[in-house]
Write a structure and sequence with these properties.
Keywords: ATP-binding, Chaperone, Cytoplasm, Nucleotide-binding, Stress response. The protein has 3 domains: about 230 residues, Heat Shock Protein 90; about 130 residues, Ribosomal Protein S5, domain 2, CATH 3.30.230.80; about 130 residues, Up-down Bundle (Four Helix Bundle (Hemerythrin (Met), subunit A)). It has 22 helices and 23 strands. The strands form 4 sheets. The protein has a 9-stranded mixed β-sheet, with helices on one face. Strands 16-15-18-17-20-19 form a 6-stranded mixed β-sheet. With about 650 residues, it is of the alpha+beta class. The N and C termini lie far apart (about 100 Å). It binds adenosine-5'-diphosphate.
Length: about 650
């Protein structure tokens, strides 16, 4: 047995985080209790499930519960459970380190928080985003001691820290099964929102407020004054005396344990829903939307779902999980049940309680289960329609939702063709109609010009790059609205053949766009004349630039720039190519068409020079025109040095020509 506890250092990130916890003026210090109770409740859920699955596990599950033991004199509070417990390795891994991926992300946020100062807002934002569970105890405790023994093991572990740079870890031979966390409380300082957490009235109040719905009994000893019972014979004589009383201590359950998802909406307060959301999602923000669903009939189930306000930091990480917990008749079965929600709705948190599943259902069985599939379909539709309703009735909340989760939501446009219509209806897009406001597709269609039969869009890396691209010129000149799609996922769904209300989507940077066709006073004869006048130059350019372009043609999309590059209708955009390359896929560079603006002075001059002969002298200019088209759309030149050299040569020549005259 190790006589001396081992001393470990916290990782740098953990230390910084603790520092923030210890010193921040984060006002909601009460929430430490919710976190401890939430962890204890999870541990009880896990033990019950484990004992169902593993009949040989030697544990007593007859009285699973949580105990609060305040000691006003010693100024300590113990929160204990007889749940699954932790092994020594788990204590080091889960409690001693931040047991999450994304430490780089956290480091960045911490640095930002420090820059802003350790303010309430900074702490709150960080906590909201990362959900600092166990560590929140250091807001209220000078020292935290955790003693735990894993179900089925004989030796327990003690972990202790004062929240500075180190913690100690130690074997405990006689630890009871489960986990107890003892807080040596900081002095009461109500100005700093530090209340008396050794006070029973306060604790009872906090449990009611934050943890009332917890499905396990939360017990606390209460002193009760009861009359002293006397033998029959004495009772007659003392009738005029006050009855004698004594104080007894009784363990009382202080939460009501009601399963909120089984209640109708009118029976549950908003605050209760919010606290439940925080419990299931391990988050600290408030939900933006609460969704309840109670299905009767062939498949009986209840669902209570939440759309968070703040996107979690790991929303786009590979191991980001689906946030639905599965229960069967109030018994917890598993968390992160991927079978119940499509991946693109992974930000939705909550519980589903299905009445007709077996308690020892496995993930493999779930994947095959008809009922689970039916529930998933229904929940998916419900979430999508809720988003649509939110957009129509609470535009500000919808905007918060869209800014946080829109990019994930749009993954569904690619991955869930069955719901594509509903998803398009619920989605919003940036457009040239307004710089700030987003538009729905229905509103876009409402503003379409007469004769316009497709929804125009352009993809790119940023709004600025897209709206300044030469492809936009004629659309701007003619006042035709274009969707501005700058999320990587946009590339995917627009090329997945989406349609809305019978209208197809067309990229303004792809295919032949004939805006003049929509234009009544366009002049076909002058167009034909131009085609003739430029024919020779165009075919020469196609040959000269054949390494880079598929053809050269006259454009009807340009009004200001001399040239732009246009892909085939079904080609990949340069951004998509870049995405694929970045993910390690190889394929040949795709050539696009070079379109020239026949009314641009440079193009006119080039045509004249071409007619005058000495075509070799025009090669540098041809390359410059191509290079300019690449740069103008925000693209990257393959050989910027060569472009610069050509440009310097051309400028020198024009100065020389200027001084000659
Ligand atoms: P979170 O609860 O958000 O995951 P915490 O820091 O609160 O983060 O806890 C980290 C992990 O430590 C938990 O996910 C759980 O695995 C483990 N843990 C915490 N408290 C207990 C407990 N009372 N019993 C068993 N395991 C626990």
């Amino acid at each position: 047995m190790s006589a001396q506890p081992e001393v470990h250092e916290f990782q740098a990130e953990t230390r910084q985080l603790l520092d923030l916890m210890v010193h921040s003026i984060y006002s909601n210090k009460d929430s430490f209790l919710r976190e401890l109770i939430s962890n204890a409740s999870d541990a009880l859920d896990k033990l019950r499930l484990e004992s169902l699955l593993d009949k040989d596990l030697d544990v007593d599950t007859s009285d699973l519960h949580i105990t609060l033991i305040p000691d006003a004199e010693k100024r300590t509070l113990v929160v204990a459970d007889n749940g699954i417990g932790m092994t020594r390795d788990e204590v080091v891994g889960l409690i001693g380190t931040l047991a999450r991926s994304g430490t780089a992300e956290l480091r960045r946020s911490l640095a930002e928080a420090r820059e802003k100062g350790v303010s309430d807002a900074a702490a709150e934002e960080l906590i909201g985003q990362f959900g600092i569970g166990f560590y929140s105890t250091f807001m209220v405790a000078e020292k935290v001691t955790l003693v735990t023994r894993k179900a089925g093991e004989t030796t327990g572990t003690r972990w202790e820290s004062t929240g500075d740079g180190t913690y100690t870890i130690d074997d405990v031979p006689d630890a009871p099964q489960g986990t107890s966390v003892t807080l040596a409380l900081k002095p009461v300082d109500t100005e700093d929102h530090l209340y008396d957490y050794a006070d029973k009235t306060k604790l009872r109040q906090l449990v009611k407020r934050y943890s009332d719905f917890i499905a396990w009994p939360i017990r606390m000893d209460v002193e009760k004054t009861v009359p002293v019972e006397k033998p029959e014979s004495e009772s007659d004589e003392d009738t005029d005396k006050a009855p004698e009383t004594k104080t007894v201590v009784e363990a009382e359950t202080i939460n009501s344990m009601k399963a909120l998802w089984a209640k109708s909406r009118s029976e549950v307060s908003e605050e209760e829903y919010h606290e439940f959301y925080r419990h299931v999602s391990h988050a600290w923000d408030a939900p933006l939307e609460t969704i309840t669903l109670q299905a009767e009939g062939t498949f009986e189930y209840q669902a209570l779902l939440f759309i968070p306000t703040q996107p979690p930091f790991d929303l786009f990480m590979r191991d980001s999980k689906v946030g639905i917990h599965l229960y069967v008749k109030r018994v917890f079965i598993m968390d992160d049940c991927a079978e119940l929600m499509p991946e693109y709705l992974r930000f939705v948190k909550g519980v589903v309680d299905a009445a007709d599943l077996s308690l020892n259902v496995s993930r493999e069985i779930l994947q095959q289960d008809r009922q689970i599939r039916a529930i998933r379909r229904r929940l998916t539709k419900k979430v999508i329609s809720t988003v649509t309703e939110m957009r129509d009735s609470r535009p500000d909340d919808y905007r918060t939702f869209w800014d946080g989760f829109g990019r994930v939501f749009k993954e569904g446009l690619v991955n869930d063709p069955d719901n594509r219509d509903a998803l398009l209806k619920a989605s919003s897009f940036a457009s040239t109609h307004s710089e700030e406001e987003l538009t729905t597709l229905a509103d876009y269609i409402g503003r379409m010009k007469s004769g316009q039969d497709t929804i125009y869009y352009m993809t790119g890396e940023s709004r600025q790059q897209i709206v300044n691209s030469p492809h936009m010129e004629a659309f701007r000149a003619k006042g035709i609205e274009v969707l501005v799609l700058s999320d990587p996922v946009d590339e995917m769904w627009v090329s997945a053949g989406a349609e809305f209300d019978g209208k197809t989507f067309q990229s303004i940077a792809k295919g032949a766009v004939d805006l003049d066709a929509d234009d009544e006073d366009s002049d076909d004869t002058s167009k034909d004349d131009q085609e003739k006048a430029y024919a020779d130059l165009l075919s020469w350019l196609t040959t000269t630039l054949s390494d880079d372009v598929s053809e050269t043609r006259l454009s009807s999309r340009l009004t200001e720039s001399p040239a732009c590059l246009v892909g085939d209708t079904f080609s990949m955009s340069p951004q998509l190519e870049k995405l694929y390359r970045a993910s390690g896929q190889q394929f040949p560079k795709s050539k696009r068409a070079l379109e020239l603006n026949p009314d641009h002075p440079l193009v006119e001059a080039l045509n004249k020079a071409y007619a005058n002969g000495d075509h070799d002298k025009l090669v540098p200019t041809a390359k410059l025109v191509y290079g300019m088209a690449v740069i103008a759309e925000g693209g990257e030149l393959e050989d910027p040095a060569e472009f610069a050299k050509l440009l310097a040569g051309s400028l020198t020549e024009s100065f020389a020509a200027g001084s000659d005259s």
